Amino acid sequence: MEYQEQQPPPPQYVSEVNLAALLPEAVVDLPTFLKLRMDPSDNTFLLETSYELLSKAPERLSLFRQGLATGDYIALKHLAHREKGSASTLGFNRLANAMLRFEYASYLVIYQFIQPDAQQFSTLYYTIEREYSVLRDYLQKLFASQAHPAH
């Protein structure tokens, strides 16, 4: 069978309902991210805030692993909620959505709507880990010509 490039659907089949399914979610919502600059020609603040979030990723991932190991879903819910807010404020939508899914799953366990499912939480954890990695790669390419802020 010969490979054929997939073509987008004709415009009459595109609606708000299915548009999200047709477009991959952006790693970074650039309009939101770039609005954080005080001076449109200065990316210093963006570099510093991105670096701050990503430099704490190993510590945050460790806290997720500890919470999963001990079954502390209240701490996990709070951690995911806090990280969701940080990621969302910066326009890091995929990371924010991964945190939201983890937060919601923790909420469901806390209030006994579902039983803890190790496989489900493992998948959610690895999604967060992957999104940190994807975000790091994306931002490195975005700011390739600029130095990282001082530690």
Polypeptide structure, described:
- It is a single chain.
- With 151 residues, this protein is mostly helical.
- The chain is 66% helix and 0% strand.
- The protein has helices at 16-22, 30-35, 44-55, 57-70, 73-90, 93-110, 118-142.
- Helix 4 (57-70) packs antiparallel against helix 7.
- The N and C termini lie far apart (54 Å).
- The model is unreliable at 8-20 (pLDDT under 50).
Task: Tell me what portion of residues adopts beta-strand conformation.
Answer: under 5%
Query: Structural class of the secondary elements?
Result: mainly alpha
H/I helix tally: 7
**Helical content, roughly?**
55-70%
Global outline: elongated
Oligomeric status of the shown chains?
single chain
CATH topology: Four Helix Bundle (Hemerythrin (Met), subunit A)
- Alpha carbon gap, first and last residue: 54 Å
Q: Give start-end ranges of low-pLDDT stretches.
A: 8-20
Q: Please describe the biggest sheet, giving its number of strands, its sense, and whether it closes into a barrel.
A: none
The number of E-state strands comes to: 0
The CATH homologous superfamily is called HPT domain
Q: Can you tell me the CATH class?
A: Mainly Alpha
Query: Whole-number average pLDDT?
Result: 85
Q: Gyration radius, to the nearest Å?
A: 18 Å
Order of helices and strands: HHHHHHH
Total domain modules: 1
The CATH architecture assignment turns out to be Up-down Bundle
